[in-house]
Amino acid sequence: MTTAIYGVGAMGGAILDGLTAHGDGEVLAVARTPERATELRERYADRPAVEVVDASTAAARADVHLVVVKPYAVADLLAQVRDSLRPGSVVVSLALGVSLADLAAALPDGVAAVRGMPNTPARVGQGMTVLSPAADVTDEQLQLVRDVLVPTGATLVLPEAQQGAATAMSGSAPAYFYLVVEAMVDAGVAQGLSRSDALALAGQAARGAGAMLVETGAEAALLRAQVTSPGGSTAAALARLEAHGVRHALADAVAACAERAG
C-alpha cells in the first residue's frame, strides 16, 4: 500500500507523523519547495517508509492520495497531477470547503473522490477524520481509505452536507479544549501551583475525561453527575461556569465555526 501526502504543513505533518509512527506501507511526502523537501528528508531520515518526491511521481505511484494543501491550492495541484493518477486510485481532499463537485470536475474518469476533515491529534494517533465519499466510491475503496487512516485515530463517515457541522465538532474542536486547558492552567497558577504542575494536572484531567467518554460510551451529563456531589466543591465550580454562560458560548462557537466551514 502506497499513500501520498500533498502538503506537509501542520495538518499534513500530523498525518504523516501518525502514519509513519504506527502504520505499515510506503508514504510519499510531497513538498512545495526544494527547501521544504530537504527539511522533510532530514526530519524523517530515521523512518525508511517515508520518501520525499515530487507531485507527479507521487500521483503515478500512490494508491491513496491525501490532499492537505490550502483550499485555494487544491485546483492547481489536481491540474498538475491529473494525467499521472492511476485509474482505481482514491483522492481524499482534506482541505476545508473543497466539495465533491469540485473534486469531480478536477479528476479524470476512474479516479475516486472522497471529501474529508481531519484534526491535529492525528499526530499522536488520537485524531478523528470525517469522510464523505462520492456516490461512485465503492465500499472497498472507502474501506481502503479508512484502513490507511487507522494509525492516525478514528474515522467517521457522514453525508457531505454535514461536513460543516463535523468541522465545528471535530476539525476545530481541539482548539476549544486547548483554550479550556490554557485557562485552567492560568487559574491553577493563580492558586499557587507551578505552571508545569498545573499543566500536568489539567492535561491529564482532559485526557482522562476524553477516555471516559469514548471508552464507556456514557453520556457526558451522566459522567459529570458522577463527580458532582450535592453542595460540594465541584458543584460550586460548575455553578460558576453555568453563571458565566459556558453552554451558550460553546453553542455559539460551534454555530460560528459550522457557518464559516460551510
From TrEMBL:
<dbReference type="InterPro" id="IPR029036">
    <property type="entry name" value="P5CR_dimer"/>
</dbReference>
<keyword id="KW-0028">Amino-acid biosynthesis</keyword>
<comment type="pathway">
    <text>Amino-acid biosynthesis; L-proline biosynthesis; L-proline from L-glutamate 5-semialdehyde: step 1/1.</text>
</comment>
<keyword id="KW-0963">Cytoplasm</keyword>
<dbReference type="InterPro" id="IPR028939">
    <property type="entry name" value="P5C_Rdtase_cat_N"/>
</dbReference>
<keyword id="KW-0560">Oxidoreductase</keyword>
<keyword id="KW-0521">NADP</keyword>
<protein>
    <recommendedName>
        <fullName>Pyrroline-5-carboxylate reductase</fullName>
        <ecNumber>1.5.1.2</ecNumber>
    </recommendedName>
</protein>
<dbReference type="GO" id="GO:0004735">
    <property type="term" value="F:pyrroline-5-carboxylate reductase activity"/>
</dbReference>
<dbReference type="InterPro" id="IPR053790">
    <property type="entry name" value="P5CR-like_CS"/>
</dbReference>
<comment type="function">
    <text>Catalyzes the reduction of 1-pyrroline-5-carboxylate (PCA) to L-proline.</text>
</comment>
<dbReference type="InterPro" id="IPR036291">
    <property type="entry name" value="NAD(P)-bd_dom_sf"/>
</dbReference>
<dbReference type="InterPro" id="IPR000304">
    <property type="entry name" value="Pyrroline-COOH_reductase"/>
</dbReference>
<dbReference type="InterPro" id="IPR008927">
    <property type="entry name" value="6-PGluconate_DH-like_C_sf"/>
</dbReference>
<keyword id="KW-0641">Proline biosynthesis</keyword>
<dbReference type="Pfam" id="PF03807">
    <property type="entry name" value="F420_oxidored"/>
</dbReference>
<dbReference type="GO" id="GO:0055129">
    <property type="term" value="P:L-proline biosynthetic process"/>
</dbReference>
<dbReference type="GO" id="GO:0005737">
    <property type="term" value="C:cytoplasm"/>
</dbReference>
<comment type="similarity">
    <text>Belongs to the pyrroline-5-carboxylate reductase family.</text>
</comment>
<feature type="domain" description="Pyrroline-5-carboxylate reductase dimerisation">
    <location>
        <begin position="160"/>
        <end position="261"/>
    </location>
</feature>
<feature type="domain" description="Pyrroline-5-carboxylate reductase catalytic N-terminal">
    <location>
        <begin position="4"/>
        <end position="95"/>
    </location>
</feature>
<dbReference type="Pfam" id="PF14748">
    <property type="entry name" value="P5CR_dimer"/>
</dbReference>
